[in-house]
Amino acid sequence: MSLDGLSLSPLIKELHHQLLGGRIDKIFQPDKNTLLIWIRQPHETLKLLISIAAEHPRICITKSAPDNPAAAPTFCMLLRKHLESGRIGQVTQQGLDRIVTIDIDVRAEQGTITTKQLIIELMGKHSNIIFVYNDIILDSIRRVNIFMSRQRQVLPGRPYLLPPGQERLNLFNVTSQEVVDQLLANQQGTILSKALIHTVSGMGPVSAKEIVWRAGLPENISSERLDETDKQSLAQSITEITAALQGDSIQPTVAVGDREELLAIAAFPIDHLNKAKKLTFSSMSLAVEYAETLKGPKNSPAKDVLHKLVLSELSRLQRKKSMLELELAEALQADSFRLFADTLMIHLHDVPPRAKQAELPNLFSDDRDKDLVIPLDPLLSPLANAQYYYAKYNKLQRRQQMTQLQLQQCTQEIAYLESVALSLDDAGNAYDIEEIKQELVTSGYVQQKSKPKKQLKLPAQPSFKPRQLVVDGTTILIGRNNRQNDWLTFKQARPDDLWLHTKDIPGSHVVIRCGEQEISEKVLTIAAQCAAWFSKARASSSIPVDYTRRRFVKKPAGARPGFVIYDQQHTIYITPDGKLLETLLKNQIE
Fold first, then answer.
1. 127-131, 458-462, 481-485: which has the minimum mean pLDDT?
2. Which of 152, 467, 481, 486 is most buried, taking the most CB atoms under 10 A from its CB?
3. In terms of C-beta density within 10 A (0-12 exposed, 13-18 middle, 19 or more buried), how is residue 519 classed?
4. CB contact at 8 A, 192 and 222
5. Which residue, 419, 401, 385, is CA-closest to 507?
6. Which residues 6+ apart lie within 8 Å of 265 measured at CB?
7. Which of 330, 323, 335, 328 is nearest to 394 (CA)?
8. Cα(470)–Cα(100) distance, integer angstroms
9. Do 19 and 46 meet the contact criterion of CB atoms below 8 Å apart?
């Protein structure tokens, strides 16, 4: 659930006041639906988040910015070329529609100042971010061709046209009585809340239901059943909402359900949801940012598919491992069959024919007084029984070797898939998920279609930079997935850098960029905490973390991504402090 046009209006005023005159410092595109713009103001840098995700399109100032890819998408590169170092001229709203325009003043080649625009359309599944100059589209984050829409194409070189829509009343330009009159004239027989939505520009279900509730009218009352008193109450309710939105008395509110789910968000108190928990905020940006946290984990379909596949493979391998362990336990009994055979060969003439068992002295045991009981096949001669036990011994010996090899391979596969599952849990963007998918394709767990659909193009190096933080001037790098672990360890790290990893536990590779310099105990401890936190043992305590110089880390030939061997290591036992690491990572270098 997102803001309607009415509640968006005070948010745009707030953003205009905060961003006016600010210089665009950096532009990022964390995923295909999101832009992150760093805007420099005196003594502070504001992070403007713009998302056109269909389930919750939004624009707000944020503090917890998402991770950014190492290789910027084409649209992001275009915006960097044209808009970086530009100044925010104004932030406006198209009437009361969910269309926001950001005017950016940039210096042209001849030194003149020109104005270019980012137009943000926050309209559910039709949301878009469009880059416009002189009413001509330069590009958009989501291109719309004629096959997607016959009415309105959003393509480079075409003139920008507003989305088609019915002419509705602007609450800020008409009186509440005019709204009621037009509603009664054009929406006869319609539920009152729906009639308000169809009459007033920017009116959403939350605002409409709140107006009806404040008017003291039943929720499902029809517009044609209003008497004169009801009409006056409705007009008064509309006036209250309009005055709150136009003045300085807005009260950003988020309504939360029993299960901590988002019920509604508005710029005024949401009184009609009387059973919901209501939280108020000092600014609309804070309310919008908090509302996004209530939506819970937002796994993409691709991530869900990969996660289900990995868990299925892990379950299959765990069953296979149990069977192999049983087979190995049986194969380890091979020596007892050789003992039977050797004993029979020594005492062939002491075994009577057609005997079902033989009790013979065990010459291979220290306890000579205790006889060895050997089961026999009465249809076979003593020599044939001995040969049978020799054959069974040889068979179990071969099975023992093969089972041990299979068990070792199975254990390695389980460890590998556990590391992939760990990377998937931390993956929060399309590029990271695509990297993991391509890794699984290479490893043979995912079949590549002969004619694959359009996929994200992966660069030679990982799409995202490693997580990075600085402690006492020393840089610590943390891999995000197996592919990036290899890249970090063998491409980025220098031979004398310190390398860390949880001992015998799947997790991220961590590198301290120190070279030959000595590092403080504080830096080593925080790096070890990072290795423990980004591992399967995150919730445990006293986690063993090995550390050694990078030159002592090797990758065996044919090993899966992320798998290494190392020596000359030391071990530190650490309990990660999640709050400390989250605070440090929020201030990471971009």
1. 458-462
2. 481
3. middle
4. yes
5. 419
6. 1, 2, 3, 7, 206, 252, 253, 254, 255, 287, 288, 291
7. 335
8. 37
9. yes
d(CA 545, CA 499): 10
Q: Which two tokens stand for residue 1?
A: 């659930």
Distance spanning both ends of the chain, measured CA to CA: 31
Opening angle at CA 154, ends 149 and 155, nearest 5: 120
pTM beyond 0.70: the answer is: no
Q: Decide: 23 and 40 in contact? Cβ < 8 Å.
A: yes
Contacts of 213 (CB under 8 A, 6+ apart): 219, 271, 272
Q: Looking at 74-134, which runs of residues are DSSP E strands? A: 87-93, 99-107, 113-121, 128-133
What distance in Å separates the CA atoms of residue 142 and residue 149, rounded to the nearest whole number? 13
Residues in the chain: 590
Cα dist. 134→109, 150, 153, 399 in Å? Answer: 16, 23, 17, 77
pLDDT of amino acid 298: 53
CA torsion sign for 15, 282, 169, 219 is positive
The span from the CA of 437 to the CA of 445, in Å, is 9
**Closest-CA residue to 586 (of 40, 47, 29, 64):** 64
Nearest by Cα to 169 from 359, 5, 387: 5
What is the full DSSP assignment across 462-513?
-SBPPEEEEETTEEEEE-SSHHHHHHIIIIIS-TTSEEEEETTS-B--EEEE
pLDDT digits (tens, 9 = 90+) for 293-336: 776 445 567 778 888 888 888 899 999 999 988 888 877 778 78
The C-alpha atoms of residue 414 and residue 322 are separated, in whole angstroms, by 12
Return d(Cα 186, Cα 189) in angstroms, integer.
9
Identity at 580, one-letter amino acid code: L
DSSP bridge pairs for 253:
266, 280
What does the pLDDT look like over 252-280, one tens digit per residue?
A: 999 998 878 888 999 999 989 888 899 99
Determine how many CB atoms are found less than 10 A away from the CB of residue 365.
13
Contacts of 361 (CB under 8 A, 6+ apart): 347, 368, 371, 372
For residues 393 and 403, give the distance between their C-alpha atoms in angstroms, rounded to a whole number: 15
Residue 230 C-alpha from the chain's centroid: 49
Report yes or no: 328 and 317 within 8 Å, Cβ to Cβ: no
**Is the distance from CB of 553 to CB of 489 less than 8 angstroms?**
yes
Q: Where are the alpha helices (DSSP H) in 294-381?
A: 301-331, 334-346
Whole-angstrom Cα distance, residue 407 to residue 401?
A: 10
Q: Which two tokens stand for residue 200?
A: 């007033």
- Highest-pLDDT range among 285-294, 364-373, 430-439, 562-571: 562-571
List Cβ neighbours of 546 (8 Å cut-off, separation of 6 or more): 500, 501, 502, 503, 566, 569, 570, 571
34-41 sheet: strands from edge to edge:
58-62, 44-51, 34-41, 23-31, 87-93, 99-107, 113-121, 128-133, 136-140
Rounded to an integer, what distance in angstroms lies between the CA atom of residue 491 and that of residue 512?
A: 14
Residue 23 to residue 35: CA distance in whole angstroms: 16
**Which pair of tokens denotes residue 340?**
């039977």
User: What is d(CA 517, CA 270) in angstroms, rounded to the nearest whole number?
Assistant: 59
